[in-house]
């Protein structure tokens, strides 16, 4: 009696996985779902005030970099004035983590006159 045919090792590996871990198939830009470290993940980029109330939120796929989202997050900040007038869009100071510390982001803040407090990346620190 013969059982079911044995699968060859080459067919067994990779046939079950629809796309590689890096992800060739991409989600549409308006979806916040992507592959990072083998699983489906989402990143939330949030600007909050000191009282931790969210001022703007950007959702991206897990494999997307953090640095390009910095300007998008700050661009969506709008604080209404108590009287009449257009909302404030420029904070006095930004505190960010190391993921957002890049020369491009620091130059953007300098152009807008916004002070920044964030740790330097090791490869970008001045000696």
What does the secondary structure layout of this molecule look like, with pairings?
Blueprint: H1 9-15, E1 34-36, E2 39-48, E3 54-61, H2 69-75, E4 93-95, H3 103-112, E5 115-117
Parallel strand pairs: 4-5
Antiparallel strand pairs: 1-2, 2-3
Fold and architecture overview:
The chain has 127 residues and is α+β, with helices and mostly antiparallel strands. It has helices spanning 9-15, 69-75, 103-112, and strands at 34-36, 39-48, 54-61, 93-95, 115-117. It has a three-stranded antiparallel beta sheet with strand order 1-2-3, covered by helices on one side. A hairpin with a 5-residue loop joins strand 2 (39-48) and strand 3.
List keywords for this structure.
3-stranded antiparallel beta sheet, 5 strands, 127 residues, single chain, alpha+beta, two-stranded parallel sheet
Query: What is the total tally of β strands?
Result: 5
Pick out the low-confidence regions: none
**Helical percent range?**
10-25%
Counting H and I runs of at least 4 residues, what is the number of helices? 3
- Spell the H/E element sequence: HEEEHEHE
């Amino acid at each position: 009696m013969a059982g079911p045919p044995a699968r060859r090792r080459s067919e067994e590996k990779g046939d079950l996985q629809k796309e590689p871990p890096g992800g060739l198939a991409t989600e549409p830009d308006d979806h916040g779902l992507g592959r990072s470290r083998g699983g489906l993940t989402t990143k939330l980029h949030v600007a909050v005030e000191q009282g931790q109330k969210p001022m703007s939120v950007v959702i991206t796929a897990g494999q997307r970099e953090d640095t390009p989202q910095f300007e998008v997050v700050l661009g969506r900040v709008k604080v209404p004035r108590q009287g009449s007038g257009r909302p404030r869009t420029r904070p006095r100071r930004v505190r960010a983590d190391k993921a957002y510390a890049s020369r491009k982001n620091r130059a953007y803040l300098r152009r807008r006159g916004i002070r920044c407090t964030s740790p330097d990346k090791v490869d970008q620190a001045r000696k």
